[in-house]
Design a protein that fits this description.
This protein is 67% helix and 0% strand. With 112 residues, the protein is mostly helical. It has a domain of 55 residues. Helix 1 runs antiparallel to helix 2 and helix 5 packs antiparallel against helix 6.
Length: 112
Amino acid sequence: MSLATPHLCTALGFWVAVVRIRDKQAWLLLAVLWPTTMMLFGIYFPERLGLDRRFPWAKWMVIAPILFQVLGTNVAFDLLVLKKTAAAVEIDRLFSIHSSLGSTTRAPAVRR
């Protein structure tokens, strides 16, 4: 159940946005399902946080690395679809804190 719930909620958000394509609230519902927009929603609703008023640049110190990693992961997976594995691994290594496509180093063997 815990695995199905996020997928069901995402599918519901997309369905609402498709059915009510001109409704801004439907698109807001879809946007709030993603972690970065959920964080921005928390900062600005019901009113802007005092910390954000004093240091408006601080939120971008959290958002920028997340967006940077998401961009790199998307490019890497696009390259994987095109069967360009070496380029995908290199892009993933450049954009990620830890490589999600595998590592060139092996974990040490465990002796029993």
